[in-house]
Amino acid sequence: MFVPNADPDREAMLKTIGVERIEDLFTDVPEGYRFPKLNLPEALSEMEAYAHLSELAQANSSVRDLTCFLGAGAYHHYIPAVVDAIIQRGEFLTAYTPYQPEVSQGTLQAIFEYQSLMALLTGMEVCNASHYDGATAAAEAVIMAYHHFRGKRTKVLVSHALHPQYRATIRTYMQGYTQLTITGDECTDCDPLAGPEVLLRAIDTNTALVIVQYPDFLGRIYDYTELANTAHQAGALFAIAVNPIALGLLKPPGEFGADIVIGEGQPLGIPLSFGGPYLGIFATRKEFVRKIAGRLVGETVDQDGKRAYVLTLTAREQHIRREKATSNICSNQGLMALASTVYLSLLGKQGLRQVAELCYQKAHYAADLISQIPGYTVCSNAPFFHEFVVCCPKPVSEINQALLEYGILGGFDLSTDYPGLKNAMLIAVTEMNTREEIETLRDVLEDISHE
Amino acid sequence: MNIPAELKYATTDEWVKVEGDVATIGITDYAQDSLSDVVFFEAIVSVGDTIKAKQQIATVESVKAAADINSPVSGEVIAINEALADSPELVNKDPYGTAWMIKVKMSNPSELDNLMDAAGYESYCSGREH
């Protein structure tokens, strides 16, 4: 480990804090885990490493090699070349946190523009500088609601149609909140295709937050007005997880009376890249501005009256009052937030709407074709955006294996997360799927069912 | 620096005004001056809550810092100054008057003996000046 301190310096520091050796600082880590033996091969030269990694990479099949109908929270959209060109500029390509406004105006303005765009898209009043991904943002929404009620409300209701990984992440984050119950998504004896009405009965005056998804994990679009009203009547907060592309077409969640809008920003100009880095969107109402996690950039004027951007409301940030902060994650996904900002500013309102419409139309064309194949049904009759559930004549794993032989990445197998949905596949269609691809999918699915 | 003679003071810079068994609590002129412009006030207890001495009752944020406000006495919260949420600047303008924060019905008035009088608080503050 390279630490530029001489031994006498270290000794002085250790003495000051009252320990004898550096190792004493790690006594909280169980001994077996402190210096584990790592099973690593011998070091390689750069040239060898490059060759080795290239060889490994060739074993991957990406969406560049396959026709993709897989979504389930991460989507294959077109990324204009300008997005990469801009985010790779050295001025932006930094992990530096812009605490010094005098040297960070570019980064700060980029984040400010991101916040403004997201507030507009979601119909909310304020948006933070971003989180790691949609799942993290969902967990932060739960934490914020819990703190908002100062722990006096101990129930969080999550929809069973919220992304399963978001639900798992929420539970991971809330492990230490022993008095908090996370419920509503136990779908042991319920109909997995039930709508949000199943949550209505469960809302009570002990509910801190109700959290749903829009479109939901199964691709369905619901009007959440009644649910939001019921939550508000019980004094609870209401959160909606969104797909930002869908908001190019659908009513913004701000109009349902959402208190918190979170979402996965990956569809906005960010590559799939094996699941990350992605972008966690977190927007809320102004009245909660001091309760949001993460950081916030504001616009002000300097002493000469010139426009300037600064990190604002930092008095509640974790570097100032760590133990009092809503969340101790202040990292934001600056570069990914920038990518989404470039993407949205390039497309504009009309462009985003066009992408959303293409997704919608192509997905409905695909659903229409698939529903005509004997043995296959589109088994949810709720309106959907660009993803839909297909009940298949065989296990999805078998169908996907067969599709791969035709160079098609099939839909998401729902049976693991929703045992009630055996042989059910979640198919996603975006603007990237051509008519030919959709028709080929239909033909292959039909062939498979005869095998 | 203004230190009214009729009040009691805590080392954490809260003042207490005693009327019968009711304690009105706010923060001192010294505290508001150290904080600079106050931009946010939030009570973190509700009317009806039972609190203990030294328990946090509110958060105040200024443009440069955030501070926790603690109750110098134990008892039941009987009033919260709702006006401060909308006008936090009152804390700077009128710390001993319109910017009172909460009223507590004391359960143990002997706790007042642990507090300083105006003279004690004045020397305590001057001891902190650098």
From TrEMBL, chain A:
EC numbers on record: 1.4.4.2
Pfam family, one: GDC-P
Domain of life, per lineage: Bacteria
SUPFAM superfamilies on file: PLP-dependent transferases
Signal sequence bounds: none
Record's keyword terms, sorted: Oxidoreductase
This protein's record includes keyword Lipoprotein: no
CDD domains named among the record's database cross-references: GDC-P
Domain Glycine cleavage system P-protein N-terminal: 2-444
Any single biological process term in GO: nucleoside metabolic process
InterPro entries reported for this sequence: GcvPA (IPR023010), GDC-P_N (IPR049315), GDC_P (IPR020581), PyrdxlP-dep_Trfase (IPR015424), PyrdxlP-dep_Trfase_major (IPR015421), PyrdxlP-dep_Trfase_small (IPR015422)
Membrane-spanning residues: none
Entry-linked HAMAP family: GcvPA
Subunit note: The glycine cleavage system is composed of four proteins: P, T, L and H. In this organism, the P 'protein' is a heterodimer of two subunits.
Family according to the record: Belongs to the GcvP family. N-terminal subunit subfamily.
Its biological purpose: The glycine cleavage system catalyzes the degradation of glycine. The P protein binds the alpha-amino group of glycine through its pyridoxal phosphate cofactor; CO(2) is released and the remaining methylamine moiety is then transferred to the lipoamide cofactor of the H protein.
Protein name: Probable glycine dehydrogenase (decarboxylating) subunit 1
Originating organism: Anaerolinea thermophila (strain DSM 14523 / JCM 11388 / NBRC 100420 / UNI-1)
Originating gene: gcvPA
TrEMBL record, chain B:
Biological-process GO terms, alphabetical: glycine decarboxylation via glycine cleavage system; protein lipoylation
Cofactor binding comment, as recorded: Binds 1 lipoyl cofactor covalently.
Domain Lipoyl-binding per the UniProt entry, residue ranges: 22-105
Modified positions (N6-lipoyllysine) in chain numbering: 64
Cofactor: (R)-lipoate
Alphabetical list of InterPro entries matching this protein: 2-oxoA_DH_lipoyl-BS (IPR003016), Biotin_lipoyl (IPR000089), GCV_H (IPR002930), GCV_H/Fam206 (IPR033753), GCV_H_sub (IPR017453), Single_hybrid_motif (IPR011053)
Keywords on record: Lipoyl
Ranges annotated as spanning the membrane: none
PROSITE patterns (UniProt xref): BIOTINYL_LIPOYL, LIPOYL
A GO CC term assigned to this protein in UniProt: glycine cleavage complex
Family: Belongs to the GcvH family.
Oligomer status and interactors: The glycine cleavage system is composed of four proteins: P, T, L and H.
Function: The glycine cleavage system catalyzes the degradation of glycine. The H protein shuttles the methylamine group of glycine from the P protein to the T protein.
Protein name per its UniProtKB record: Glycine cleavage system H protein
Species, as recorded: Anaerolinea thermophila (strain DSM 14523 / JCM 11388 / NBRC 100420 / UNI-1)
